[in-house]
Amino acid sequence: MLDKITIPSEGYVDYANKIKNFVKQNKKRTFYILPHSHVDPDAVSSSIIMHSVLLKMGIEDSYVLYDSLSSTSKILLSKYPYPLKSIDEIDFHKGDVLVVMDTNSLTKLPEKIREKIEKKYFKLVVIDHHLPLKQLTRLADLYLYFKATSTTKGVVYIYLYLFKTFPKSLCPFAIAGILSDTGFLRYSDKDDISLVNTMINLLNVSLKEFSFLYKSWDTLDKSLIVSGLKRAKYDTINGKEIVFTHVGSEESHLCNLFVQLGFNISIVVNRRYERLSIRMDSTTRHITECLLSNLNSRGFECGGHEGVIGCNMTSKSDKEIFSDIKNSLKECLR
Q1: pLDDT of residue 10
Q2: Would you say 240 and 279 are in contact if contact means Cβ atoms under 8 Å apart?
Q3: Right CATH for 222-332 from 1.10.3720.10, 3.40.50.300, 3.40.50.150, 3.10.310.20
Q4: Which pLDDT band holds residue 77 (cuts at 50, 70, 90)?
Q5: CA angle centred on 149, ends 166 and 24, rounded to 5°
Q6: pTM of whole model > 0.85?
């Protein structure tokens, strides 16, 4: 069934050929695939699928690394085991290939590796769906930027183009990666829905198999909701209802829940992992690119796709962050 899927023309054929040529030129090197810190299901799934691409191309000396896993990634790997290596187990050598997955920012990678990347210790490949930042583009030997809702979807298309089929064993990771980064298809496009439906049918399971990726009022920690509501600040900009709060975990899930409650835009800061999530409803998603550009010009490190933005934190206070976002929203909601 998957071999019948039409691969979008938006660069994927070119991406696949670039990967093919890069691997051919570096076959004798060791390849390490490294997703961003605190690995989420999109990052781990795209890394696993990319590892399978390398193995199928004859790169046996290749490994998927991690430093820490999110709670949902731990559940995914307990249900569908795949061998990963802790970054602490690895002694890198100059000239190894490092394939960075699902991040546009050096600061979202483990501290142990950053200095080596900056000193050009590796042959560096970056594969990501967030808006590229100079931080990594200037260092990369090959940079693949997918205009997609998830990095996983882009890597699935590369696999399909290169090998004209897709293994059943990788379908759970493809489904989890896409569901995770589209809010269980709330922020999806028709290609996401087509891929997920095809793979669900191939596995002969229901979406309930992946319900651990979906956080509802029933499953989200009630103390987290209460904490987020207690700290929340509210505003209206050009008729759009905005909510801003900060929590210690699950910021993206709380962001989604605020939009489900009826807010047009929700902004949730996670001070523990120094992250910021923004979600927009159907009436405000059109400003995503404007908001991304505006926030990055104000010193944020943001990436995202329609209706969804994620940023690395700055040293600014919550008050300063909210002020910057409000001013950006005023410009984009004109």
Answers
A1: 61
A2: no
A3: 3.10.310.20
A4: very high
A5: 50
A6: no
